[in-house]
Amino acid sequence: MKYQKGLNKFKLLILFVVFIFSGCSSVNNLKFKNIVKVNDVYYQKTSDVVSLDELGPELGKVKLTTPKTNGKYEFVNYEASKLEVGTKIYKLENENFIAVEIQGTDTVYQKYKIISPDDIIEK
Hints:
Blueprint: H1 2-27, E1 29-31, E2 35-38, E3 41-50, E4 58-61, E5 64-65, E6 68-70, E7 79-80, E8 88-91, E9 97-102, E10 108-115
Parallel strand pairs: 5-7
Antiparallel strand pairs: 1-6, 2-3, 2-7, 3-10, 4-8, 8-9, 9-10
């Protein structure tokens, strides 16, 4: 009988541990802000648009989209959270900003500003 009680306690302990760890994974399923990483710098979407005459040379295109994270995550260059693969990115005169080409009925060039790597997760 002692062996049976010990086995039941062990089973309960295992179930408890599994329950705790399964709950943690959903807490870590976080969303990124609307960001893109270019040349080791993170940029976040602003509400401002850029005119054609403000655009500098093309810096590159989005190569990868990653909308969610399971904990801490570091983007690679030309990786975005909400932009489509192939989206063009342009340099602006003010180096604190870049422009991103948004395709739609009309093409719009959205301004993105520099943010800290510690500020890329939606709160």
